[in-house]
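Q: Structure tokens for this one, please.
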Amino acid sequence: MVDITIRKEGSSDSQRMKAASAYVLGFITGIAVLLIAGRSDYVRFHALQSIISSLVIGGIVSLLIVYLFQGDILIEALTLWLFILFIYLWYGAYLTYHGIRFRIPVLAGLIQKCIVE
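A: Here is the predicted structure, written as tokens:
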């Protein structure tokens, strides 16, 4: 599901710290980091990946939970899903900070095309 290649990325500790902080609170910190990213493609890539993954994955699963449970255990299911998404994003932050490549397969290709163009 996630491509993890052990290779140091990000040319400085500052860039890796900015890229990792994009994952901390999902799209909220992703937007903040995107605004301060400057010209760094590395930081912009991880900020965009954080924003899009947290919104798309979170939205799809939230809609599925609402449709499937229709109020039976809706609050508990959404809380569990948000907790799982939170752990996943923190895992991405950890890998990114340590310079380990963290790319969500389909999403990473689309973001890479947008940054290059």
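A few notes: The chain has one domain: 3-116. Residues 51 and 111 are 11 Å apart (CA to CA).
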